[in-house]
Model the fold of this input.
Amino acid sequence: MPSSYIHQIETVVPDHLYRQEEVREKMKNIVQGSDRDKRIIHHLYSRSGIEKRYSVVDDFQSDSSHSLFFNGQGSSPGTRSRNDTYIREGRKLFIRTARELIDNSVFRAEDITHLITVSCTGFYAPGPDIDIIKSLALSPSIERYHLGFMGCYASIPALKLADQICRSNPEASVMIVSVELCTIHFQAHPRMDNLLSASVFADGGAGAIVSSRKPENHAYQIDGFASSITEKGAGDMAWSIGDNGFNMVLSNYIPELLSKGLESFLKPVLKPFGLNQDQIDLWAVHPGGRAILDKVEKTLSLSDDTLSASRKVLSDFGNMSSATILFVLKEFLNRSHSKPKNQTLAMAFGPGLTLEAALLTTTIG
Done:
């Protein structure tokens, strides 16, 4: 059975950049809470490990049009207005990501046989798959799939689906595009879930092309996947639709819950390949937050610089839900020390609590 490869990874962000300390001070004024709430906001933002984030919402800009949250209505925007923003701005990022995948790779639009879109922060139909097909003049008979509402781990199942397609059809070339607009669901209420999620989430898009072709440049060979659900934690991370946007449950117990399931999760991932933890060269861990990275590092006794790529993505972009793990994988490919035959383990976490992993090997064409 032929191997499949992640040939190209592209990442995009929206136009509005916010420094974390600037948002922190504005949040203290926006959230109608007590002095204690303001101190909590200051603490969360200051210890987030984030320097800057991007958003499709311009409301925090000094010259803002205040088009969504601060539009003079005196109330939180409804789900419809938030989703309208998702349609308008998300469409741009889906198309832009897909176009950059074609422009910066050896693949042509006519080579793409399958399209997988990924998102959990909005809905519309005809959806982003149609937008991409029309904008890039992809074949109207292309096979297309959408992975929706899975959360931060969803790009790994997308890679798994692409791998299965390519292994069953060596002529297939699969485009994956993930776009998440987390900031459109900001909630200005002094609940810990709202304060915590508002301090880490951001907007961004990422994509990949997977094929059985032999790579011409730096790439990842896909070796295998694993998935698990922890015994506890189903209520600690949840995502539901409310009248005023999507409601996030994000417990501060998540790092502890993940750490308890990590060691038992890793063994079945590595055992079929005759590997142990010490043989993993690169750890591409989804930067759900600084505390999660700290806990993973401590639980697995990793050296201080092991998660540097994840920490850099967190610092420069924040948590962009499903798109984020592709940012981390691209960061490794871009690093000059990346060499062939590096064993790479990508891990992401989400509602369930779900743990997803992909075992990859770096290659040079």
Observations:
- The chain has two domains: 4-211, 219-363.
- The chain has a mean pLDDT of 90.
